[in-house]
Amino acid sequence: MEHPAPDSKDWTWVLERPCPECHFDVASIDRNRLGALFRANAAAWRAILSRGSIVTRRPPSPDGTVVWSALEYGAHVRDVYQLFHDRVRDMLTKDGPTFRNWNQDRAAIEGRYQEEDPGRVAYRLAVTSGEVADIVDRIHGDQWNRTGARSDGSTFTVASLLDYLLHDVTHHVHDAEAGFEAIAEADAELADDLDSDGVDGDGTEGDEPPGDSMNGDELDGDE
Ligand SMILES: [Zn+2]
Known about the structure:
Layout: H1 34-49, H2 70-93, H3 104-110, H4 118-138, E1 147-149, E2 155-157, H5 158-196, H6 212-215
Antiparallel strand pairs: 1-2
Helix pairs in contact: 1-4, 1-5, 2-4, 2-5
Bound molecules: zinc ion (ZN).
The site of zinc ion has 6 residues, from helix 5.
């Protein structure tokens, strides 16, 4: 399995208890601030995706699975916003719609997330999240309780679907930042190894991005 599947597990439990990884707590969400929270999330992604070449690097993983780069997470979040925008719109305009299936792993591969331009991804993420926030700002009264169902049978209200979405896009900020830390640690270890191996000079040779070798056998073999 070359491609990661960060959301193949069922995340509906975050609607009932805090997430131990990103500390998202659904009970603390103020519905009146939901639109603002989505806009703040888009700003967090803009900051993440403006960090330069590190955004395209996939973090090392101890168990050999592929961990998405910040760019891949960002592109995924952009598409998640679009998907949930359409779902919420359908819930508001149709009676109890069933959502069409979305295979996020296939979307990542076919969409070539890893080859996208980070600035363009940040821009589109701001657009799609803004479209969600604009809808959210106008939801009122019983509209929060309108329903829709996933094809696996999980039923959502507009309120619970938006909570679910907010966790997803928030959790991936945590994922991307954890990835940056893992990359920095791996780079520091590599620099230590080079020093202790007696590399001469002042160590500036260690500035070559060491992560490139990890990506070489993935998608880019044709270049
Ligand atoms: Zn979480």
